[in-house]
Amino acid sequence: MSQPQWRSGDITALITEFFEQDDLQQLALDVGIFLDCPLLVLDDAYRVVAHFCPVGFSDPLFRGAVSQGAITYEASAVISKSPALREGSVDMIKLGESPFRRRFAPLICTGVRLGYLVCVDTDGHLPKISAEIWRQIDLILAKQLFIETSRQDKPFETTEDILMHLLDGGFPSASYFRLRAVGTYLADFHPSAFALMDLTAYHSQYLGARHLKEEIGERFPDSHPFLYKGDVFLFLHRDSDVDLFTELAKEFDLKVIVSEAIRNLYDLPSLYRAAHDALDMIVGSNHHGENVCSVAQLRTPLLLKNLDSRDDLISPELRALARHDRKKGTQYCETLYFYLICSRSLKKTCDALFTHRNTVLYRIERIRDDFLIPLDDPERHAELLFGVAILLFQKEGAEFFLRTMPQTDDE
Asked: Does 196 map to a domain?
């Protein structure tokens, strides 16, 4: 058997092929033979646009991607969560369902990330290939992918492309979006909301008995799921969908955010921004083990997150109260917060804190008399509420604001 060309560093034939053929699939085949490894070329939506599979190679994950025309949600999540790939560098990753490590490399041309080259390391030889050879191969494939993308007759190949372009803020007007949606299901589509699903915990813990994509297709047949910026995006149509999501999230260890109501599809970009920020918040927190939350539940902490660094807006009296809590382990800030949101109802404050009336009354008197918090000045209440809420967000995070207030009658 002849020695692979990469060992001698002779890449001239590939460069000649690039200039003479103008065919991404043929180029992928030649690169696979040159590198002596199976490979996939993916576009920016993780779809397989070219591949090379040598005779006798057997890997269910690889063959599944080729037959489905796209990699799994799990593999897509690996790409989107990799710090190296996010920065434009290469990463070597072993996926749980395959015995082989894979080299993931972003394909970037003219500063635009067009997709990825995924090479399967079947025998450990890929790290032995020189960085210069890899650089030239990545550049050649990126250039060819750029050429084929640029000469498409239509700016959008699929409905997913239209939706991703919409979410990117790419449509200058609602009328232009409606024009592009003609001939797709979007032309007469009225979902009630959408969900964003983070796959980080699922990828690291789930054993792969079933693929999440298959489960979503079975449980939510009209949700039109697709991957956007590493998260699964899918539409909801009924209130009962949220209950089904709760079951799915617990079973697969997912974090899910349900958006505000969709009144017009053209509003998706603004709705997505809030949902994405909310998903980041619950993924990064440890709140009560909740798997599914809504943007509505997180409005308060989302607002506070934007004020988190503005200690200068908090009065000296409130900062002194917070310092006392930290030093002595008291709960004056928490008591003040509930006292204000309960319209200074002592009974509701006691119920919210699960604390005896005398204890709460003592705290309120100390807050007013010892820390000089102006509880009797209604004009200061909004300032006090914002200030103490920021302090509690800094100390305990979003989970504090997910507590449910008991429903009680007025005093």
From this structure: yes
